[in-house]
């Protein structure tokens, strides 16, 4: 049966939602007549805006307005009223599996490793040795619609976003023809952050080479970015631009330097090369930048690494050696090696 109304549920972090956009495009290619709705949390949903393959964005505020059993019942009722005939559930939580089950969606496809796997009508193996993009695309296997070639995600800033970015660059003293180096030093996870002092040193080295530098990040990254900006004498757009405006800024940059966090995927989605710094996590987890010109800088051969899938509040052994051994000069060399 060809699906007519499809619900895709990804209520995790911004980076996970960006990566699932590859699955969004694959669904549209396979079923061009279907209407596709994507469910996401409010913090991640803005990255979905303007996407030509998404018919509707369904915001599920699971930690605030829609928290608890009452909130679950409300979102289930909204989903039921839409009459979806297919649910694709890359998010592996019990709640994400429960919603389409309670809403009575007849075909529900998720991963065999999901906490709610018993609620799916079809289960797909979660390949630990694959990139997350390819794992998400595997959800189309039961429909015989998985693309043979991987698809990079895409995001779609509009003309208004571009205008805001050009105005910000002008105020920062960066002409429209200059391609800066973007630097995203933040992360939700403390141990995923390359030290602020290392970012400061990298920014100063870039400035000594007459390279324009811009700092990017969300509201939570403002104190860190302002500190680095003041120390290195570079402008910060952290907390000033929306997600899609940040994507528009990154698209105008020659390269993005970042930790293992959402901005690396945002850069991939606008085809800007990435130099990603990995400490407690490893690319083998499947979340490395997926672009053809991207690079990862890491400290291989440590017995303590990886220490967890997300990183943590502090280094478990108190040394932070995985990050401290990565020098600004080494990251600068990786930037120099980026083609184009």
Highlighted features:
alpha/beta, Rossmann fold, 2 domains, 11 helices, 11 strands, globular
Give an account of the 3D structure:
The chain is globular. It folds into 2 domains: 5-143, Rossmann fold; 159-336, 3-Layer(aba) Sandwich (Rossmann fold). The protein starts with a strand and ends with a helix. The strands form 2 sheets. A 6-stranded parallel sheet has the order 3-2-1-4-5-6, with helices on both faces. With 340 residues, the protein is of the alpha/beta class. It contains 11 helices and 11 strands.
The proportion of residues in beta strands is: 5-15%
* Sheet of most strands: 6 strands, parallel
- The unreliable regions are none
Helix content: 25-40%
Overall form? globular
Number of strands: 11
Order of helices and strands: EHEEHEHEEHHEHEHHEHEEHH
Q: Give the helix/strand class.
A: alpha/beta
Mean pLDDT: 96
Adjacency order of strands in the biggest sheet: 3-2-1-4-5-6
Question: What's the number of domains?
Answer: 2
CATH architect. name of the largest domain: 3-Layer(aba) Sandwich
Rg is 20 Å
Output the number of helix runs. Answer: 11
Describe what is shown at a glance:
The protein has 340 residues and is of the alpha/beta class. 34% of the residues lie in helices and 14% in strands.
């Amino acid at each position: 049966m060809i699906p007519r109304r499809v619900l895709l549920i990804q209520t995790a972090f911004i980076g996970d939602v960006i990566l699932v956009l590859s699955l969004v495009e694959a669904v549209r290619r396979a079923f061009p007549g279907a209407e596709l709705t994507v469910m996401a949390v409010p913090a991640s949903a803005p990255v979905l805006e303007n996407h030509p393959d998404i018919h509707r964005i369904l915001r599920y505020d699971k930690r605030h307005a829609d928290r608890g059993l009452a909130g679950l019942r409300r979102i289930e009722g909204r989903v039921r009223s839409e009459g979806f005939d297919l649910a694709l559930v890359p998010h592996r939580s019990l709640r994400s599996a429960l919603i389409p089950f309670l809403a009575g969606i007849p075909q529900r496809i998720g991963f065999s490793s999901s906490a709610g796997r018993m609620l799916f009508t079809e289960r797909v193996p979660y390949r630990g040795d694959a990139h997350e993009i390819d794992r998400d695309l595997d959800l189309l296997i039961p429909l015989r619609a998985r693309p043979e070639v991987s698809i990079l995600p895409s995001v779609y800033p509009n003309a208004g976003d571009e205008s805001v970015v050009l105005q910000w660059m002008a105020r920062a003293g960066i002409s429209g023809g200059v391609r800066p180096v973007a630097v995203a030093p933040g992360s939700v996870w403390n141990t995923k952050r390359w030290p602020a002092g290392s970012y400061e040193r990298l920014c100063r080295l870039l400035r000594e080479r007459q390279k324009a530098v811009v700092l990017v990040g969300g509201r939570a990254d403002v104190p860190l970015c302002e500190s680095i900006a003041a120390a290195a004498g570079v402008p910060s757009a952290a907390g000033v631009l929306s997600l899609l405006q940040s994507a528009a800024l990154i698209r105008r940059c020659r390269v993005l330097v970042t930790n293992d966090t959402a901005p690396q995927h945002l850069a991939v989605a606008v085809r800007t090369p990435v130099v990603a710094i990995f400490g407690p996590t490893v690319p083998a987890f499947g979340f490395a930048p997926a672009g053809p010109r991207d690079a990862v800088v890491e400290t291989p051969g440590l017995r303590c690494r990886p220490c967890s899938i997300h990183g943590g509040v502090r280094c478990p052994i108190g040394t932070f050696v995985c990050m401290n051994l990565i020098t600004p000069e080494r990251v600068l060399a990786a930037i120099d090696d980026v083609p184009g």
